[in-house]
UniProtKB/TrEMBL annotation:
It comes from the Bacteria. Gene3D superfamilies: Superoxide dismutase, copper/zinc binding domain. InterPro entries: SOD-like_Cu/Zn_dom_sf, SOD_Cu/Zn_/chaperone, SOD_Cu/Zn_BS, SOD_Cu_Zn_dom. Keywords: Signal. Residues 1-21 form the signal peptide. GO terms for biological process: superoxide metabolic process. The lineage of its organism: Bacteria, Pseudomonadati, Pseudomonadota, Alphaproteobacteria, Rhodobacterales. Residues 49-175 form the Superoxide dismutase copper/zinc binding domain. This is Superoxide dismutase family protein.
Amino acid sequence: MIRTVLSAAALAATAALPVSAQDGDASGDGDFTLAARADVMDRDGSQIGTVSLNTTASGVTLIIVALNGLPEGGHGIHIHETGDCSADDFTSAGGHVAGDAQHGIFVDGGPHPGDLPNAIVGADGNLNLEIFNPRLEIDEMIFDDDGAAFIVHADPDDYKSQPAGAAGDRIACGVFERG
C-alpha cells in the first residue's frame, strides 16, 4: 500500500513541474535559495538534466529533479555519499548518504537522508519531481570532505533491502557543486 501511494504521488508530481531545476520555485516567486546543483549524466556521458538542492525559509531542503532521456518505469533515486561519478557504473559515488539511519522507510524512525521516493518516468522519458527532505543537511552531508552525488537506479527501490533498496544498476549520476 505504501509503495502504491508513493508511486502515485510521484507520478502526479511529475505531470505538473517545470523541466529545469533552477533557483526559485515552480511558481516563480523565489521562496527558496539554490544551495547546490548537479548536472546529471547518463552512462554514455550525455547530460540528461539537473538536480538542485535548495534552502527554504523554514530550513528544510527542497530537492528539484528535472531529467529527460530515462527509460520508462519506476526508478530508485538517491543521494550518494561521495561526489564522484568517474566509474563506468557510477559505483565511485559510494553508498547512500545515511547519517546514523539504516535504509528504508520504517527503519529507525524513517528513511536515511539519502533516501528519496521512487520516481516514475513516463513514455516521454521525463522525470520532474520536487521533494522536501528535512533530514538532509546540505553543508554537513553534501559539502563534506568528499562531496556527494545524485544517482538514478535502473529499478525501483523496495524500501527495505539493506543497504540500498535493491534498486539495481546505477544508470545516471551527477556530482553536487555549490549553487
